[in-house]
Amino acid sequence: MDKEAEKRTEIGRLGEFGLIKVLTAPFKAQQATTVKAIGDDAAVLAPEEGKQVLLSTDMLVEGIHFDLMYTPLKHLGYKAVVVNLSDIYAMNAVPQQVTVSLAISNRFSLEALEELYEGIRYACERYGVDLVGGDTTSSQKGLIMSITAIGYAQGQTVAYRNTAKPGDLICVSGDLGAAYLGLQLLEREKQLFLESSADFKPDLEDQKYCVGRQLKPEARRDIIAYLAEKGVKPTSMIDVSDGLSSDLLHLCTQSGTGAIIYEDSVPIHEEAYSLALKFNLDPITCALSGGEDYELLFTIAPDDRQKMMDAEDITIIGIMLEENQGINLLSKGGNLHPITAQGWDAIQRLGKP
Amino acid sequence: MDKEAEKRTEIGRLGEFGLIKVLTAPFKAQQATTVKAIGDDAAVLAPEEGKQVLLSTDMLVEGIHFDLMYTPLKHLGYKAVVVNLSDIYAMNAVPQQVTVSLAISNRFSLEALEELYEGIRYACERYGVDLVGGDTTSSQKGLIMSITAIGYAQGQTVAYRNTAKPGDLICVSGDLGAAYLGLQLLEREKQLFLESSADFKPDLEDQKYCVGRQLKPEARRDIIAYLAEKGVKPTSMIDVSDGLSSDLLHLCTQSGTGAIIYEDSVPIHEEAYSLALKFNLDPITCALSGGEDYELLFTIAPDDRQKMMDAEDITIIGIMLEENQGINLLSKGGNLHPITAQGWDAIQRLGKP
């Protein structure tokens, strides 16, 4: 929201090829599988013998998926890459390349796009992935990003959604609900800002964790590395993007299983817990339905239980059951509540004009 | 433009997953390299031993790249896939998969999207590629598509843009300029329609070829097959999407060569030729700067000349020179004109609001 003395280079002055050149010049290929990155009709990748190639793609639309009122462009670039990498990790695979396509209105200057690409570059460097292509064009309104991540795995190690079995233990990494609460906080501060005088200062200091989880999520590369190190192959896996409820339902529906989740086992960060109460929200509801956690939700064979107990940041939260036993939350009070897809709901979003 | 008794199912009723299911149900995987298509965090592809994987991606924005006033959704879906496949063929490789991501405003009904996907499916079937993933979300305005094509090649056969040498012959498939003239015609008919009474009937009968080249282009799979059959590896290659001038400049700049193009050799379809004259345009200018032809522009070693002469739909249009000899058109009158990038110009488009 700071406009003073900002340098502004009109994008039209550069042309498409000039723009791509400026934006992608700082990217250096790191991966042996990257044969040819940007600059031809297509990127060229060479997987090693016996490897499988995995592709995941996401589209992010301004006003639908992000709000530039409170999302710094650098964070947006970082998050856009990370959430795609998360999809590759969720297959128990390792991402090595990304493509980034942009549609942009002329509201954006070169400096704004450079900020966006700085975030993209940080993510690429941190996760060791190469930017290998994309497309850049104009939009009629706002910023639209389409990102594709490419990963590799040995064939047998890929973890699908449809291979869980009754009796498998349900595990989740990290904690849940904080990103959603961070979003609520940012939305509240935005409203206060819009209704207030010019010198309004948002107060986010005490909720750094939740705001950080919303604006700068990380993908759980460490969990995939831990599983590989311990020789554990998840029997099914997904990343928590839509919310624990919705993503658990994907595993159960595709695997043909039921499940039970223990409320008192669901990991919730203490800051998220108290922020939920401050907003008059039920912390477990935020954890179940919030979404955008980008944690890994996976199932393991019962024999691997101890290896999960030994892990620093993995929690066993339930067990897979037979399909006819339903999908339920066992509350702290000892009652069973059916779990429904109250996570991120495309219906509401698609209903917008 | 026909609105009578049109069935309309609101997309919001289906939800994101329901929508994906309905739209992608008719797609059947055809490729041995497709291990897992839609329905998990990522698509899984398994290239054969020693093969390289190629990726190409494009973003298409309503109001920038297409106008639904005169573009049937089925044609749009078909074209969106084909232009991406063209990028893979332009690497002398064979596409086998695509991903399709959409951002859509609630102006679009399920039936409209099914029409779009019917076109996508026709293209997939015709070119033998599998739809393996994508993302579907809402937009604030109009339709935005992001398509990624994945192709495969033996490492040594990939044709890059930066490997042409002085003395190489410059070849092009098919003919040039017709798609641009088709677009001019559609734009003119649109204006007439907007200014006229309700029973206006566009008159496109005599220009079927040009309109077809604009609305339903094909990628030159046959040329790639011919080159493979004859054992010819192009020394450089690109597809003509921005216009012959602009795309030739890419080959020359990246290869560090000059070039000469013979005006009287540039292939122009007779319908395009007479339509250009009707519009008071110079046919050679349309061929040089029109774009969207999706023909292959490539260079070959002089020894392969006869094989090009024998081909049904390949024309030798010039020769690569030393860089200091410049890049020129030799006109029918015998004069040299410098070739500049007057093709599709991102600057103009990015300058739009």
Query: Which oligomerization state do the chains in this entry correspond to?
Result: homodimer
Helix tally of chain A?
Answer: 11
Q: What's the shape of chain A? A: globular
Stretches with pLDDT under 50, minimum 5 residues of chain A:
343-353
What is the terminal-to-terminal distance of chain A? Answer: 26 Å
Write down the secondary-structure element order of chain A. Answer: HEEEHEHEEEEHHHEHEHHEHEEEH
Summarize the main sheet of chain A: 7 strands, mixed
Helix content of chain A: 25-40%
The main sheet of chain A orders its strands as 9-11-8-12-10-13-14
Radius of gyration of chain A: 21 Å
In total, the number of strands of chain A is 14
Could you name the key traits of this structure?
homodimer; 353 residues; alpha+beta; 7-stranded mixed β-sheet; 5-stranded mixed β-sheet; globular; disordered C terminus
Task: Write the topology of this structure.
The structure is a homodimer of 353-residue chains.
Chain A: H1 15-24, E1 34-36, E2 43-45, E3 51-61, H2 73-89, E4 94-104, H3 110-127, E5 130-133, E6 136-138, E7 143-154, E8 169-173, H4 178-195, H5 208-215, H6 221-229, E9 236-239, H7 244-255, E10 257-262, H8 270-278, H9 283-289, E11 296-300, H10 305-310, E12 314-322, E13 327-330, E14 336-338, H11 346-350
Parallel strand pairs in A: 4-5, 4-6, 10-13
Antiparallel strand pairs in A: 1-2, 3-7, 4-7, 8-11, 8-12, 9-11, 10-12, 13-14
Task: Please characterize this protein's 3D structure.
2 copies of one chain form a homodimer. Mean pLDDT of chain A is 88; it is low at 343-353. By secondary structure, chain A is of the alpha+beta class. In chain A, the strands form 3 sheets. A 7-stranded mixed β-sheet of chain A has the order 9-11-8-12-10-13-14, sandwiched between helices. In chain A, strands 3, 4, 5, 6 and 7 form a 5-stranded mixed β-sheet that branches. Chain A has a two-stranded antiparallel sheet with strand order 1-2. Chain A starts with 14 loop residues before the first helix and ends with a helix. Chain A has helices spanning 15-24, 73-89, 110-127, 178-195, 208-215, 221-229, 244-255, 270-278, 283-289, 305-310, 346-350, and strands at residues 34-36, 43-45, 51-61, 94-104, 130-133, 136-138, 143-154, 169-173, 236-239, 257-262, 296-300, 314-322, 327-330, 336-338. The first copy, chain A, is built from 11 helices and 14 strands. Chains A and B meet through helix 1, strand 2, strand 3, strand 4 and strand 6 of A and helix 1, strand 2, strand 3, strand 4 and strand 6 of B.
